[in-house]
Amino acid sequence: MNCCGRPLSRRAFLTAAAAAAAEATVLASGASRAFASAKTQPRVPVNTVPPLAPRDQMTALMPPLPKFIRSGPGSQPRVAITVDDLFTAANVDDMNGLMDVAKARGIKVTFFPTGGALQTHLDSGKADVWKRVVAEGHEIGNHTWSHTNLTKLTDAQVRDELGRTRDVLTKILGDVPYKMRMMRPPGGAGGYVDGGDPRIQKINAEFGYSMAMWTIDSNNTAGNQSLADKVVSTSQNGSIALFHFATFAEQYFAPMLDRLRTERKLEPTNITGLFGS
Question: What is the pLDDT of residues 96-144, one digit of tens each?
Fold first, then answer.
């Protein structure tokens, strides 16, 4: 046996062969472990769907709404509490008072401000109330910019009323994610037709809005206690009660909400809450 022209002893040859075999075994074992590790390593799925924006993520978790809402399902013992207009800076104090009452009772409400009201709150330095509305799980709907009868406006004017209101709310909220899902036509104009006025509803669809009407309001009452009595006595499963701070002062909410629960066994909620499971 020769190596590089030099004779090798039998012992040296066997020693070299054993060393080479051991090295080959080690290399093969390492390769086997690497292959097994690669096989058992969990594959990371590749997300081919674009991520949702924060505002859309929140909306995706909410129950879907009908395109036209006059009341909620009659199968659930719930009544929606909604407050419209909120024209003045003083109404911010009313909102805070109502939210204090609602928070103490675990209740959510729906606010329908006009864009002009939102601008007034912004100009008066009180617009942070809308961040509280979102933070505490209440709901905001679009009530147009100037509280105008939409049926008397052109399509472009309707879009402007809704778009300006949406945009000023976005400005107020800043990086707080929120997307309005409904609108309420001022005075109900366009909402007394079954399914809503088709022309206005077509524009609402462009904004992703449902049209939200109501079943109980202050008509034929003197407001305040008289309106509270009407709401308690006439509410049914799925009712939507409409309030304005001008005719229903903030201090009347707490006893009325308690009476809805105790006397009528109805749970106050916001409009979206009517449609939850």
Answer: 999 999 999 999 999 999 999 999 999 999 999 999 999 999 999 999 9
| Alpha-carbon gap, residue 273 to 139, rounded angstroms | 10
Q: How far is CA 277 from CA 100, 105, 178, 255, in A?
A: 26, 20, 22, 27
Question: Cα(173)–Cα(222) distance, rounded to whole angstroms?
Answer: 36
d(CA 17, CA 251): 97
Task: Assess contact for 161 and 146: CB atoms under 8 A.
Answer: yes
For the entire predicted model, the pTM comes to 0.79
The count of residues in the chain is: 277
Residues 68-105 have pLDDT tens digits of 999 999 999 999 999 999 999 999 999 999 999 999 99
- β 6-7/2-3 pair status: antiparallel
Residue 277: the pLDDT is 81
